[in-house]
């Protein structure tokens, strides 16, 4: 490790930074009806606060990349997190849905710095051989969020008031800030040569995208990582309205399927002792594609009952815990100087592709599970084709076929 800090504490703090935004999304979902009633508005308008949050995450990440490279990791990190705290308090005292939408946007712009900074700091702190393991643990922490956040949010909403959701988020973020000051290393030194002019920033992102390996693996990780977005967008309709599960049963199902991604991240630690990041990604995409095809065929022919579909989805989602952290590790490995910008672009790409896939699930909704499983499989197919083209163009494919043990 580049700096002598406890591995566990470092990963815990970086994981907490990474999960600020996901936790902020999942925790207030159960409160939509209560918020709509309290603000005398419709749930559809309250849902716009989620849309504004996702937009804020996507845009904010692009701004933080250059800031983290120019001023070092800590200053932009603290500024962003304190913006998040202030916006969270603003959300709790809002009196209209319009102000809630605005505050949620500001909350996302502030909080998303945690995602970008955490990824850049992984590149700064850990040696290249340990990056994938660190990313796997970050993925684990993020994967735990949908198991804890909605339950916690429902309890707070039922027993207190929805305003307390945002007060608690502000308190959690404040504790994370103090943890960063207490134990988190500074990471890369500030680089005064970096310009923050729009043209210079644009060229900075264009520069990192010129790295063919980086571009390939952020596309592979982003497209393959969008498959769970299709599942999240379509699963409630599929399992509640089509397969007849109750809301409570669906909640348990959501938690169960999250275990697939959590378990895979732990398995990744073991696999990295024997296989390369690249080969783990290839293997995960291959078996996900097979499972995806089986789900499409089974749903199309009505051959799957709910239990078989759940089992197939469980196996499918384990691929997320294998392909995403290893793709991220390969993507960021070439960067020392511009790791912040590279991490920001990677985060933006994931959010943008995930948003598109979520929208497509709604666009193609036809009262069956076909749109969900078709888009899940399509994400893996496209990601696999992108990787296949890269491996062929660089000659790595021929090497893999000759040396299967690599």
Automatic annotation (TrEMBL):
<keyword id="KW-0813">Transport</keyword>
<dbReference type="GO" id="GO:1990961">
    <property type="term" value="P:xenobiotic detoxification by transmembrane export across the plasma membrane"/>
</dbReference>
<feature type="transmembrane region" description="Helical">
    <location>
        <begin position="77"/>
        <end position="95"/>
    </location>
</feature>
<dbReference type="InterPro" id="IPR020846">
    <property type="entry name" value="MFS_dom"/>
</dbReference>
<keyword id="KW-0472">Membrane</keyword>
<feature type="transmembrane region" description="Helical">
    <location>
        <begin position="214"/>
        <end position="232"/>
    </location>
</feature>
<dbReference type="InterPro" id="IPR011701">
    <property type="entry name" value="MFS"/>
</dbReference>
<comment type="similarity">
    <text>Belongs to the major facilitator superfamily. Bcr/CmlA family.</text>
</comment>
<feature type="transmembrane region" description="Helical">
    <location>
        <begin position="342"/>
        <end position="364"/>
    </location>
</feature>
<feature type="domain" description="Major facilitator superfamily (MFS) profile">
    <location>
        <begin position="10"/>
        <end position="395"/>
    </location>
</feature>
<keyword id="KW-1003">Cell membrane</keyword>
<feature type="transmembrane region" description="Helical">
    <location>
        <begin position="162"/>
        <end position="180"/>
    </location>
</feature>
<feature type="transmembrane region" description="Helical">
    <location>
        <begin position="134"/>
        <end position="156"/>
    </location>
</feature>
<feature type="transmembrane region" description="Helical">
    <location>
        <begin position="101"/>
        <end position="122"/>
    </location>
</feature>
<dbReference type="InterPro" id="IPR004812">
    <property type="entry name" value="Efflux_drug-R_Bcr/CmlA"/>
</dbReference>
<feature type="transmembrane region" description="Helical">
    <location>
        <begin position="46"/>
        <end position="65"/>
    </location>
</feature>
<protein>
    <submittedName>
        <fullName>Drug resistance transporter, Bcr/CflA subfamily</fullName>
    </submittedName>
</protein>
<dbReference type="InterPro" id="IPR036259">
    <property type="entry name" value="MFS_trans_sf"/>
</dbReference>
<feature type="transmembrane region" description="Helical">
    <location>
        <begin position="370"/>
        <end position="392"/>
    </location>
</feature>
<dbReference type="GO" id="GO:0042910">
    <property type="term" value="F:xenobiotic transmembrane transporter activity"/>
</dbReference>
<feature type="transmembrane region" description="Helical">
    <location>
        <begin position="306"/>
        <end position="330"/>
    </location>
</feature>
<dbReference type="Pfam" id="PF07690">
    <property type="entry name" value="MFS_1"/>
</dbReference>
<feature type="transmembrane region" description="Helical">
    <location>
        <begin position="279"/>
        <end position="300"/>
    </location>
</feature>
<dbReference type="GO" id="GO:0005886">
    <property type="term" value="C:plasma membrane"/>
</dbReference>
<feature type="transmembrane region" description="Helical">
    <location>
        <begin position="252"/>
        <end position="272"/>
    </location>
</feature>
<keyword id="KW-0812">Transmembrane</keyword>
<keyword id="KW-1133">Transmembrane helix</keyword>
């Amino acid at each position: 490790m580049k700096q002598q800090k406890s591995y566990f504490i470092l990963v815990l703090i970086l994981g907490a930074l990474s999960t600020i935004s996901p936790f902020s999304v999942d925790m207030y979902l159960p409160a939509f009806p209560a918020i709509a009633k309290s603000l005398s508005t419709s749930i559809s308008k309250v849902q716009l606060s989620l849309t504004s949050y996702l937009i804020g995450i996507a845009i904010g990440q692009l701004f933080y990349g250059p800031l983290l490279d120019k001023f070092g990791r800590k200053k932009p990190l603290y500024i962003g997190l304190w913006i998040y705290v202030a916006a969270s308090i603003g959300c709790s005292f809002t009196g209209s849905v319009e102000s809630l939408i605005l505050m949620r946007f500001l909350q996302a712009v502030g909080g998303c710095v945690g995602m970008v900074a955490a990824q850049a700091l992984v590149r700064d702190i850990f040696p290249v051989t340990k990056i994938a393991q660190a990313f796997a643990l970050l993925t684990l922490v993020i994967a735990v969020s949908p198991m804890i956040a909605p339950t916690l949010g429902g309890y707070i909403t039922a027993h207190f008031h929805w305003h307390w959701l945002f007060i608690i988020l502000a308190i959690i973020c404040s504790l994370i800030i103090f943890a960063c000051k207490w134990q988190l290393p500074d990471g890369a030194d500030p680089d005064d040569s970096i310009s923050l002019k729009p043209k210079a920033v644009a060229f900075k992102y264009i520069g990192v995208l010129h790295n063919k390996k980086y571009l390939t693996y952020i596309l592979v990780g982003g497209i393959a990582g969008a498959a769970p977005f299709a599942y999240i967008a379509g699963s409630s309709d599929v399992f509640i309205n089509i397969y007849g599960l109750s809301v409570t049963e669906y909640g348990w199902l959501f938690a169960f399927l999250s275990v697939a991604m959590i378990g895979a991240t732990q398995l990744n630690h073991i696999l990295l002792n024997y296989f390369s990041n690249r080969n783990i990604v290839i293997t995960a995409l291959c078996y996900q594609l097979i499972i995806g095809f089986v789900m499409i065929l089974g749903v199309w022919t009505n051959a799957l009952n709910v239990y078989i579909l759940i089992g197939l989805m469980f196996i499918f989602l384990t691929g997320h815990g294998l392909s995403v952290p290893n793709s991220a590790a390969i993507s960021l490995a070439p960067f020392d100087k511009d790791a912040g910008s590279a991490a920001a672009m990677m985060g933006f790409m994931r959010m943008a592709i995930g948003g598109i896939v979520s929208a497509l699930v709604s666009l193609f909704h036809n009262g069956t599970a076909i749109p969900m499983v078709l888009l899940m499989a399509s994400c893996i197919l496209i990601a696999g084709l992108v990787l296949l083209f890269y491996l062929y163009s660089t000659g790595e494919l021929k090497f893999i076929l000759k040396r299967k043990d690599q």
